[in-house]
Amino acid sequence: MMERTYIIPLRREWLKAPRYKRAKKAVTALKEFIQRHMKKETVKIGKALNHALWERGIKNPPHKIKVNCKTEDDHCLVELHGHKFPEKKQEEVKKGLADKLGLTKKDDKKVEKPAAPAKDAKSEAKPAETAKETKPAPKEVKPESKPTPKADKPAPKAKPESKPAKKEKTEKEAIQDSFDSAKKLNELTNNAK
Q: Does the first or last residue of the chain, that is N or C, have fewer Cβ atoms within 10 Å of its Cβ?
């Protein structure tokens, strides 16, 4: 494991980018610098360093920055000078219930035998629950299988009822209705005179 301190010039790199990408360019310049000098492909930036790079916004990153670098197995950690590196989390061995209770392997077999009937009781309860769950399911399927104009377009109830009535009439009935309505209009106009 190797640790080094660098002062990284960022201004030359972020001046090449447009104003709205300068902090992003500063981050990539920092990573490229660390890859070149620490000879590692992956670079992980610490929380304080990231905050220092983005502190003044995307348009105005710092001109240069002092960092501490530390190599690990396959990557390099970079943190702002004066800040500590985050510690590795140690993986704890997961203990089972038997280990927590202090049971031995012989005790585990005893525990498993009573557990099997308990599972059967649960499995018996499950079909009853599934039967209850299956009853509401067809109710939900029925409205979905019949598409209604209400679901597609919200409209008043009167309009859907009037449309099927017009479709049920034949051509002869429609013509007869138009003649009847014309006769009524003529009668009304004659009565009004």
A: C
Nearest CA-CA partner of 30 in 57, 11, 47? 11
Q: Which domain holds residue 41?
A: 3-80
Distance from C-alpha of 171 to C-alpha of 163, rounded to nearest angstrom: 15
136 belongs to a structural domain? no
Whether residue 183 is contained in a domain is answered as: no
| Angstrom distance (rounded) from CA 162 to CA 149 | 13
Q: Into how many domains does the chain fold?
A: 1
- The CATH number given to whatever domain includes residue 18 is 3.10.440.10
Residue 184 placed within a domain: no
Rounded to an integer, what is the distance from CA 64 to the centroid of its chain?
37
Give the Cα separation of 165 and 74 in Å (integer). Answer: 76
User: At 186, is the pLDDT very low, low, confident or very high (cuts 50, 70, 90)?
Assistant: confident
In tens, the pLDDT along 156-172 reads: 555 555 555 445 667 77
